Amino acid sequence: MFKQKFISLLAAFVVVLSGTFVAAQQSGVASLRDQAIDEVNYIDEVQKQDTSGRFSRNYRQQPPLIPHSVAQYQIDLNANQCLQCHDWTNAGDRGAPTLSMTHYMDREGNQLDAVAGTRWFCNQCHVPQANAPALVDNKFEPSSN
């Protein structure tokens, strides 16, 4: 009984989907690329990371940008290679900036000896710096405070 209903629903879905596809082809649906499907799609230049020096922050509390390559860094549930240099236990020896103390606090504000799980995945907030053009025109001015 269930199998028959499932098959009939699936068949009805396929008919509706195929009808929609045929109608879309006949109505001349425009491509999101503004090009015909058989034309070559040229993409913008890929922006390379700028490692010439540190970029300044644009507003208070902006997470610092990463001034070095992290292409081969392992950051997953088992490991976080950022901590080899930036953890408070290693930063002094490595000459790297130490993580903010907020990275060692749990959700209730209790101090921890290790990086909090909510701050473990660094690349959620910190991104490699690149001198890339703005994606959209805007009038953003960096903060002076």
UniProtKB/TrEMBL annotation:
Predominant location category: periplasm
Complexes and interactors: Component of the periplasmic nitrate reductase NapAB complex composed of NapA and NapB.
Superkingdom field: Bacteria
Described function: Electron transfer subunit of the periplasmic nitrate reductase complex NapAB. Receives electrons from the membrane-anchored tetraheme c-type NapC protein and transfers these to NapA subunit, thus allowing electron flow between membrane and periplasm. Essential for periplasmic nitrate reduction with nitrate as the terminal electron acceptor.
Entry keyword annotation includes Metal-binding: yes
Signal peptide boundaries: 1-23
Entry PTM: Binds 2 heme C groups per subunit.
Residues bound to heme c 2: 103, 122, 125-126
Localization terms from the record: Periplasm
Keywords, sorted A to Z: Electron transport, Heme, Iron, Metal-binding, Periplasm, Signal, Transport
Species name: Shimia haliotis
GO molecular function: metal ion binding
One Pfam family here: NapB
Database matches in PANTHER family: PERIPLASMIC NITRATE REDUCTASE, ELECTRON TRANSFER SUBUNIT
Protein name: Periplasmic nitrate reductase, electron transfer subunit
Family: Belongs to the NapB family.
Residues bound to heme c 1: 68, 82, 85-86
Keyword Lipoprotein: no
Gene3D superfamilies: Flavocytochrome C3, Chain A
Positions of transmembrane segments: none
